[in-house]
Amino acid sequence: MKLRHSATLLLSTLAAAAATAATPAPTLPLYVGQALPGASVKFGDFDVQHTLEGDTGRMNDDAKQPNALVDVHRTNKDGTGDALGFSWKNAWFSTVRVESAPLDLRPYLAKGTVSFDLKVNELAKGGLNYRIDCGQGCERKVTDVIPARAAQGKGWRHLSYALSCFHHQGDDFSAVTKPFALDGTGEGDVEIANIRIEQNGKPTETCPDYRTASVTPSPLNESWSLDWWMPRHEEKLAEIARRKAAGEPTELVFIGDSITHNWEQHNKPLWDEFWGKYHALNLGYGGDRTENVLWRLQHGEIDGIAPKVAVMMIGTNNTGFRMEEPKLLYAGIKRDIQEIQKHLPRTKILLLAIFPRAEKADDAQRMNNEKVNALLPKLADGKRVFFLNINKAFLAPDGTLSKDIMPDLLHPNGEGYKIWQREMQPTLDKLMH
C-alpha cells in the first residue's frame, strides 16, 4: 500500500510539474536590461549581421554596400546599460533583433501584446518596422514612419501592439527564434528598452488588418517615398489638366508600380518610341501596392482623360512587402479594376500577369506571384477586361530569369522593356481599334 501510495504521489507530482512547465509566464522579457536568458542581440544590414558582444558593436563590412553603417550600443533608460541604442545610414535595410532558442508563442496570441519603450533621436530621413518572425521563411511586421518621425526629440514613449498584428491565419508560432526585431529604413538614430511579450496586455497602438490591407486605399507612406510620392501624384494631376486644356488626347495609360514607373524614369527614349504616338500617360509609382494604386485612382489620376486602353500590372510589392496571400492580393487587383471601370467606363483594360522575379522558378516570392497569376484570368470578360501573360518571354526554358533582362531580378532593363513591347503590341493593336 505504501509503495502504491508513493507511486501515486510521484505521478501527481510529475503531472503538476508538467502542468506548471506548460503554463506560459504572464510576461516574457525579451530584452529587459539584458536579453532573455540564452538569447542574443543581433544587428546589421540585409546581408551582414553580427552578434553584440560587450557594450558596443558596429557593422561596416558589407561588400555589397561598402558605405553601409549600423551601430548598436548599450545606453541608459531606467538604469545603467538597460537599453539599446541603434543608429544606421547608407543601408536600405538595417536591423537589431533578439534571437533565442525556439519559443512557443501560441499561448500569447489570443490576448497578448508585444510592448517596448522607444526614444527617437533622429528619423527625419528614416522609418521603422517592428517585426516578429513566425517560422522558416515567415515574418510579419508593422510599419511606423510618420508617427515615429513625429516623436523625434520627444523622449521615451511606451508602445504596445496586439500580437495579432503579427499573426496571420495559418502561421505557426510554436517555435519562434526571432521573437522581436526593430528594422530601420533610410537613416536614423533610436533607442529601445523593456521589450516584453505580455499574455494579457493592453494595446496602445493600432495596426492595419492584413485581411483588408490590399483593398484599403492608402498613400505610400514609406521613409523612402515621402519626398517624391505625393509630388508625383500632384504632377500627374497637373499634366492631365494641361492635356485637357490643350485638347491633347490620352489614348493609352499605364498603371502600376516601379516596373511601369521605370519606363519613364530610366527608359524615356523607349517610352517615347513605343508609346509616344498614343500620347501615353505613365501612372507607375515605385513601391506601390494595390492599395496605393486604389488611393491614386480615387484621387483624380484617371479623371479628365478618356483612353482607349488602360494597361495595368500591379501586385509584386504586395508579395515583396508582406508576402500577401494570393487570394488577398487577387482581391486588391480586382478592386483596382473595379475603380478603373468606375472612372473610365468606355476604356478597355489590359491586365498583365505579374512579371517573374528572382532567378529560379522555385523562389517563394515568384511562386506566390504565379499563384496570383493563375487567378487573374477570372477577372477578364473579353469585352472590357482582357488578360495577357507574357512571362515566358522573359524566361529561359528551365524558368530561369536572366540578369541580362532584369539586372536585379525584378526590374527590366532596356532589353526587358523591348520584350514587353514586342509581346504586348499585337494584343494592344487589337484593343486600340
TrEMBL record:
It comes from the Bacteria. Residues 254-419 form the SGNH hydrolase-type esterase domain. Residues 1-21 form the signal peptide. Pfam families: Exop_C, Lipase_GDSL_2. The lineage of its organism: Bacteria, Pseudomonadati, Pseudomonadota, Betaproteobacteria, Burkholderiales. This is 1,4-beta-D-glucan glucohydrolase. Gene3D superfamilies: Galactose-binding lectin, SGNH hydrolase. Keywords: Signal. Residues 61-197 form the ExoP galactose-binding-like domain. Belongs to the 'GDSL' lipolytic enzyme family. Platelet-activating factor acetylhydrolase IB beta/gamma subunits subfamily.
